[in-house]
Amino acid sequence: MSALAARIPSREQVGSYLTWRRLPALLAFGLILFALVYIFFLAKIPADNGATNWRTTTFGSAYHDPSSFLRVVLDSLTFASALFIVASGFALIFGLMRTVNMAHGALYLLAGYIAYEVQQKLNGSPGISLDTGQVNTWDWLVPLLIAAPIIMVIGLIIQQALLRWNQGQELRQALITIAVAVIIADQIIAHFPRTVSAGAQRFGGNAVDLTWPGWTDRFVNLHVGGVQYSLARLDVLAIGVAVGVGLWLWLYRTKTGMKIRAGVDDEKMTSALGINIQRTFAIAFMVGCGLAALGAVVWASQSNISSGQDGQWLLNSLVVVIVGGMGSIFGAAAGALLYAFVANFAATYLPSTGPDCCTQYSTIVTFVLIALVLSFRPQGLFGRPG
Amino acid sequence: MNPATWTHQQRVERTIAAIALVVLIIWPAAGWSPYWAHQILIETFLFGIAAASLIFLSAYGGMISLAQTALFGIAGVILGNLATSGGAGGTSKGLHLGWDPTLALVVAIVGTTAIGLIGGAVASRNTGIYFLMITLTYSVIATYTLGQVTKIGGFSGIGGINRYTPGWIGDLLKHPNRLYYIALGTAIVVYVLIRYVVRTPFGVSLQGVRDEPIRMSSLGYAVPLHRTLAFGFAAFLAALAGVLYVWWSGQIAPGNVDLPETISLLIMAVIGGLARIEGAWVGAFAFILMQNYISTSTHIPLVGFGGTLFGGSFNTVIGIIFLVVVIVSPDGLMGLWGRVFESKRETSGGG
Fold first, then answer.
1. Is residue B38's pLDDT more than 50?
2. Chain B interface, mutation test: which of A11, A172, A183, A189, most B Cβ atoms within 10 Å?
3. Is a pLDDT exceeding 50 seen at residue B301?
4. What interface predicted TM-score (ipTM) does this complex get?
5. Which CATH architecture has domain A43-376?
6. Residue A352 and residue A52 in contact, taking contact as beta carbons nearer than 8 Å
7. What pLDDT sits at residue B299?
């Protein structure tokens, strides 16, 4: 947009660039620099007498406590991995069809609950969190292999029945998927979780746990700074990397991927060349929804699944895509990494000087991240201009 | 204002509007259904203002904002923190600064407008669907921040705010009719203000920015600045609605600005119609009527009713209604209304 106006600045604009336009960039650079210096050197654990000041944090600086720092880095990486799995599905759909799938979070939630029900059925429906010792690899894979196809079929139905005939009307499609999200979220509260422990009352949308297979329930010595790290979380990282590589191979090394990328660039020309673009759309939509389901099963095994996470994961997907830029898996990966690091480090390394300050302000830091990226690159880090 | 030059549609609409206005003005004075006056109608007026701020941005700026509910809540939270004083407020949370309510009112509105200007500036180089996504993140971030920061209210929010109204307004709990007329008056002022603003040079160039941002930019107009100012103006309107809301309900909590509430406001605006300001109050009225009466309506065979559909709550019902509206008439009820006259004009022109 306004590329011409931006490229040929008038004399007045050049003058104002040197003064006013530079100021935000300098401030932003200073802010980032300060945050890095703070995390690496300035942060301190509380003094022995409990006195706190603006430098007080839980772990202290990276220089002072490298193993805690490394753990936060690994937490950020694994969270980024889960973010990437979910948001790459959102980005795939948006990049190809310009459809903002507002039901992405609701599908995430539905997948998590379906997987929970299946895992409970496989283990005699105790209605309480399963012990990792009870769960073998199949008890984890089967719920995934049931939940993901169900979500993919639901996605296909949404796409074929509600989105196919109004292709190109971005706003209308967003509103339609919002309506679908409202209905799905409400029906989840009405019907899930179904399995509750004997005698307990069923509360719609209650938090429930998926459980990792037993073999993941141990800590791995990383031989770096003496860090012992959860194997389950490393699995999340591995699955995220596998999804990334798989998506890359699929999009850049197969015929279907070639059609999808051609469709992203020029939908009309692609279909004029005799490629069934509607089938490509349907496949991409199903894969996008399937990734939401995979992300849900992976991350629900790590934390839990409860009503309200639909909004949380819609936000996560949006932030990743807004920051990373639309249309490429590299954008989704970059957005996921940045968002995860900023969110985790804000939650850990904001000063903690009592109950009222300041780690609970970490969500605002997410806003700062969005504001910084959008001020300098309105189309996101890897987005194409226009 | 020469009635002879009005089109048929304008004549009908203005007659209906005049009758509606007269009825609304004499409603509480005549003592008709206080439940309607103090619940449904006040709620319609104030949510209509918030929906009008959304429709203003959409119709004249080409920006669909999902941040209006958040701004609405931010105004309420600022007012609640500044105006209430501890002790009398019971166990309710918040800063309880006990400021003069008039000053608190001004700070709440100015502060929300300032936050709106910042948010608008960040999003100002995007429009349409991108703007919708960015403002949705604002809304969710605002909800989490209000919920997590216990100092300014936290998860449970602030209560008893309607006991701290400015002296020149008086006790709204004792005189609910006064709140009715304040809300009605504010709604009328907001409507007239929007109609005025879109006719000013700023409003006209904003519509230029909506339709042809590149041309406007090469003509020398500051496109992002126009969008930022429009967003700031909409934040001001949302703040008015937020203040009225806390005076009406007395409390504000993160639950008032969360995702379902954000979507409810969007549903009101869409049901009314995103193309015309009048649609805001039409949509708000339709939504609030459904909210109040669907839960008590009778049973429908097979799907179940009495507030539920397939076992769900009001949200399933409103979700389906919203879906139908978006599919059948993307311009909402106002669009349907407009089509009635369009088809008449076509038939008379063809004959």
1. yes
2. A183
3. no
4. 0.86
5. Orthogonal Bundle (1.10)
6. yes
7. 55
